[in-house]
Amino acid sequence: MKIRILVPISTLFFLALSTGVFSQNGAGDFGFDMPDVRMHLLFLSSDELRGRKTGELGNQVAAKYISEQFRRIGLQTADSLGSYYQDIDFKKVKPPSDGTFQTDFGTYKVGEDIIVLDDYASESENQLVFANYAWQGDPKINLSDLEVEGKWVLAHLGTPEDQDFQNALFNYSREKRKIVKDAGAKGLIEIYQGRIPWQFLARFLSREQLSIADAGEDESDFLYALIDGSSHEELQTIEAAMNSDAELIHSGRSEIKLSSSNIVGILPGTDARLRDEYIVLSAHYDHVGAEVQQGNPRTLQDSIFNGARDNAFGVTAMLTTAQSLAKRPLRRSVVFVAFTAEEDGLLGSEYFVNHPVVPLDKIIFNLNTDGAGYNDTSIVSVFGLERLGIEEQIRDACSSVGLGVFGDPAPDQNLFDRSDNVSFAKVGIPAPTISPGFKEFDEAIMEHYHQPSDEAATLDFDYLLRFSRAYSLIARSIGNSAKRPRWTPGDKYESAFKELYGDLPEVIEEEIPKKKGKKKKKKKKKSTT
After folding, report:
1. Which of 10, 121, 449, 455 is deepest in the core (most CB within 10 A)?
2. Measured between alpha carbons, how far is 391 from 453 in angstroms, rounded to an integer?
3. CATH number at residue 354
């Protein structure tokens, strides 16, 4: 087993901040250089932070470090917060592991065939109504045509257009629960028939799950569960008119409360006409922590998931960009946000968008940075490259530091909708994600993705520096441009854009400078005396 001597966090924290004072020499036009990127990356991915898991001490120390960097750089706090911290209350729930779900068409074991993710009653009976996808515009069944008041709704996971597991569970299911709840139903059970084997998915979902604890949450009984349709033919061939008696009995779930914070800083713009518009520069700082299985570490060598690539790399780019822009501010104002709880379902960015520190319709752009790793240090990868009308600006910025651009790698994975940028996109805000360079998921990516081996020692720091400079140049280009980013016609987020901004002009009218001419000399009046 690898033996590590852990430095006290207070000592490490002091050394990191002290180093920052002397790291400005040679920073050039960018305002930062190699000592800066090394300082941030080494601290945030250190063993002492134990993987920065949301709600744990290492996560809190990372938040303190980022807030101190914001203070040192000179960023302002948001008026609504009073500090750099946007505090979020969470609940961590472990689903029940035993019980039965009985219907007219079958009996299912809780914890094996059905995973109960949200339910405040351990024993209940109800009517079950099938609603296909229970989604707006469903071509087969219109939810409003069904009698679901007080009943449980059974529906396929995802939407008619998109059954990708991660999108379905972390994005669509939340919206679907609201749709079903607003229709008067008392629960939603979604049928899974995806590519990932059910046993792996069930094991994943049976772990403790984090969610936002809404102070105004209605804790009346509302059931949410996922049932295995891939192994049960009767769930694959279910008919539209199906109604069934149903009974659910389970062992109960455990729940604990915890908290974490988004870290937010603001840099005011310099242009009187544009300083009320904002671009948001974001990166998540949480990771997956340290894992021990039955008292043993994940590997014989290590149990700490340091998250150097995911996402100390991105936070470093954001912090150095804050340092750069503070020295030469943009025409528009900038909100810098380090999100928590991305690894738990994009919860930090979801909370930020639902509780914005500036009006959402004044945020004209989000430039998010996140990544699983890289296998090509000659490029950066951009999710959404061709969807926002800013491809040329992105390519020019990257070219300035010798990097090419690759758009939307691994399109079958729908990566655009799997990082914090999608929280902004869903409300209409143009929001790409800039990622370290890769074109597909291969062994080089998977070797370190969510593994204890994702450590600073395995990184190319020269590439990190160039990536951070490219990120800062993209931000500078958008923040100073007369052109506002917008979704290309027909994009699935275009309607949300129009709802948010209305008739926002694509280009601001630049003032025409007045011509400087010679002042005419006034003729002196002749004296009459």
Report:
1. 455
2. 34
3. 3.40.630.10
Among 479, 468, 470, CA closest to 399: 470
Q: Which one of 190, 223, 252 terminates a domain?
A: 252
Dihedral over alpha carbons 51, 54, 56, 59 (to 10 degrees): 60
Q: Which residues of the chain fall short of a pLDDT of 50?
A: 1-5, 7, 19-26, 294, 512, 526-529
Helix-strand-coil split of the chain, %, nearest 5: 30, 25, 45
pLDDT of residue 238: 85
Residue 133 neighbours by CB under 8 Å, 6+ apart: 141, 155, 156, 158, 159, 160, 176
In a domain, 482, yes or no: yes
DSSP notation for 308-357: IIIIIHHHHHHHHHHHHHHHS--SSEEEEEEES-STTTSHHHHHHHHS-S
Backbone angles phi, psi at 291, to 5 degrees: -115, 130
- Residue range 166-176, pLDDT digits in tens: 778 777 888 89
pLDDT for the residue numbered 289: 95
pLDDT at 2: 38
CATH code, 152: 3.50.30.30
Closest CA to 56 of 294, 453, 350, 343: 343
Per-residue pLDDT, 216: 54
CA gap 42, 324 in Å, rounded: 20
Looking at residue 17, what is its pLDDT? Answer: 55
Cβ atoms within 10 Å, residue 239: 6
In which residue are the tokens 């630049």 written? 510
Secondary structure string (H, E, C) spanning 65-133: HHHHHHHHHCCECCCCCCCCEEEEEEEEEECCCCEEEEECCEEEEECCCEEEEECCCCEEEEEEEECCC
Range(s) of the domain holding residue 408: 9-91+257-501
Question: Looking at 188, 217, 252, which one is the last position of a domain?
Answer: 252
If asked whether residues 151 and 228 sit together in one domain, one would say yes
Neighbours of 365 (CB within 10 A): 24
pLDDT of residue 320: 98
Cα 424 from Cα 493, distance rounded (Å): 10
